[in-house]
Amino acid sequence: MSCSSVLYKNLWLADGTGTPLRKCAVLTKGAEVRAIEPAITASAADRTLDLGGRILAPGFIDVHGHSDLSILARPEGFGKISQGVVSEIAGNCGLSAFPVTRFNRAHLNELYRQYGVEIDWDDYSGWRAALARRGVKLKMHALCGHNTLRAAIAGYEQAGLSGPELDEMARLLDRMLEQGAPGLSTGLLYVPGKFADSDEIVFLMKRLAARGALYATHLRSEGSELLESLSETVECARRAGLNRLQISHFKTAGRANWSKLDAALALLEAARQDGIELSVDRYPYTESMTQLSVILPGEWGDLDDETIERRLADPAEQQALETALDESRSSEYWRTVRLVGTAAPGFSGCEGKTLDRLAAQFRVTAPALAVKLLSADAAGTTAGFRGMSEENLRRILALPWCMAGSDENARPLDYSIGRSHPRAFGSLPRFLKLRFEDGASIESAVRQVTGLPADTFRLAGQGYIAAGRPADFAVFDPEELDGTDDFANPHTPASGLLLTVIDGEAVYRP
Ligand SMILES: [Zn+2]
Ligand SMILES: [Zn+2]
């Protein structure tokens, strides 16, 4: 990084506050913004950059990421910086790369095996030190994931926790918060978070309240029990006296639940009116993605991925699961599930296709195909699930308290550390594009991905452009801005994004 001065000129500034665009020049020195000046009187600098009338915005903040390990495997974070992202909140959906103990280390190493990074740290500080050693420039933060935290105390199979175990968990959470983790995330759809009852959540929320930390949640249900899950979250927060809530990837999943949006928003608005600082994040797509193993019915759904693979080594168990899947899922269902990535042998070139199509191609039933994938790679097989409403998506993005969250890893252009949903490369530009299409001003849409998330997650020094702040910028052309939605070629850089700057250094230029 040089200490020279740079003058960015011929630009429209969206400074993150939401105030109207203004034509000006921005002077930086080294890693810092020095001055914002009228274009005509702008001072001389070592270098001048003419932005050709484009928008200069604060570097974008991805508030819902999962780059905990991928950023260590490929520290340049290409998929993120090519979207204008300079900062990510990782550790979401209950899954973080800390705290690590003898109870969860092997499991985490197995879960993250595709990244080829050995987890040799124990806590938030240790993870941060690993990032620093790898020279990561993206400004990474991570919530403490409840699933990881719970497993650090009691492993992945235990349902109820004893009093001493709860206390131990709280002490560990306190330590992660002291080390700088901005809050706790839950993933109540997943093992072992799904075993936690409301009392356990309230117990942990009280620790967050005591430290002014934030609670982010992947709800127990985003579809059939959406309203109940939202109520549970808000009710727990009230009981705990916690007033900072983030609803992760907020959606109404499944056509039968699309009509619940009004009731859901009424519930959230009521909580906001009660003084709870509540906000949501969302990726701008109508197809979700997670591990294929979430489709498992009945008792199979309570198993962690390692146990699933182990049990499926037995042909009798394979047959049992195939039958259970066949009985619990309609043939229509398999048309809405798409293979995104897998390390199971024999499936290269199959990514992006629905399980229905792949089953026909392999001349097996869809349940048999799913079993084949899961027995070879339960931890790494990911799938896309159709079932969200475009209209609801746009209504959610239009909430002034909605931010962009990709729900993805930072990935390179190649597929060497796995394949993503297109949201890994397109979320932030696409979020802005959809907002512009729906009539939002550039400055207010930019605020949703900069100042608002910086305030919500208390990211000091981020989200705004002003003298004395870090020179973190995203430069874009609002007419051209777009992010890929191509599942066959998901690792495609966004269009219209012209420059990303972190601490005064140009880290991306297409
Ligand atoms: Zn999630
Ligand atoms: Zn997530």
UniProtKB/TrEMBL annotation:
Residue stretches making up the Amidohydrolase domain: 48-508
Keywords: Hydrolase
GO molecular function: N-acetylglucosamine-6-phosphate deacetylase activity
Coiled-coil residues: none
GO biological process: N-acetylglucosamine catabolic process
Pfam families documented for this protein: Amidohydro_3
Family membership: Belongs to the metallo-dependent hydrolases superfamily. NagA family.
Name of this chain's protein: N-acyl-D-amino-acid deacylase
